[in-house]
Design a protein that fits this description.
With 217 residues, the chain is mainly α. It has two domains: 52 residues, Arc Repressor Mutant, subunit A (Orthogonal Bundle), CATH 1.10.10; 139 residues, Tetracycline Repressor, domain 2 (Orthogonal Bundle). The chain is built from nine helices and two strands. Strand 1 and strand 2 form a beta hairpin. Helix 1 crosses helix 4. The longest helix is centred in the middle third of the chain and has 24 residues. The termini are far apart.
Length: 217
């Protein structure tokens, strides 16, 4: 927005004022900051340590704001799960795209590990959410949907690679996709648990090499 300002010499000049955020934009900014703070809390101390008040305070807002936006801790935890998943989905889409074939499949697997090494805090929080999906009712459907979508996505890429003749004709896409997903998450769990004893980059390269060998014609 432009405005007129009178200088010390009495001259009128145009100045550019920063645009004010709308109420919706302010809320979006605050919610994102609260969820980022919640991510750090969960990564450092687990879901049980997360509270609405602490998330608001850690984000630089009032202790009461998370309750105003999310209502309950369960609702905030659900929003946190969606926030982490949506962020990862956007990053992998930007980095890898939607190409199909054996090479894009391996690129997606590599990105999973590279993204975690770049942001281990979010990776640790996500691992906590996956584990909590076994016992927390608000997370169970989110984790179930994530697992289903992850297998479907990998299986679709494998099937297209098989149809293109890049991998063996006898490969069963869903079975291979489930094994790949389990391997990825297993390696991630080991790294997050004992990072000093697990080289994520070496495990990434070994897994990609093994997948290429097992699927290639």
């Amino acid at each position: 927005m432009n405005s007129r300002k009178i200088t010390t010499k009495g001259e009128a000049v145009d100045t550019l004022e920063p645009a004010r955020q709308t109420q919706a934009e302010r809320r979006e900014t605050a919610e994102r900051a609260i969820l980022e703070a919640a991510t750090t809390i969960v990564a450092e101390r687990g879901l049980n340590a997360l509270t609405l008040h602490e998330a608001g305070e850690a984000a630089g807002y009032s202790r009461a704001l998370p309750a105003h936006y999310f209502g309950t801790k369960s609702a905030m935890v659900s929003a946190l799960a969606d926030y982490i998943i949506d962020g990862y989905t956007q990053r992998i889409r930007d980095a890898v795209g939607s190409a199909d074939g054996l090479d894009p499949l391996c690129e997606r697997i590599s990105f999973y590990f590279d993204d975690a090494e770049r942001d281990p805090v979010t990776a640790r929080a996500f691992q906590g959410i996956l584990s909590a999906g076994l016992t927390r009712s608000e997370l169970a459907p989110i984790v179930e949907r994530l697992n289903r979508d992850s297998v479907d996505s990998l299986a679709g890429i494998i099937k297209l690679a098989r149809d293109k003749g890049e991998i063996r004709a006898d490969v069963r896409p869903r079975a291979e996709a489930s094994l790949i997903l389990a391997s990825m998450r297993g390696v991630m769990f080991q790294w997050l648990t004992v990072p000093d004893h697990v080289s994520l980059s070496r495990m990434r390269d070994a897994l990609v090499t093994n997948i290429r060998r097992s699927l290639a014609r």
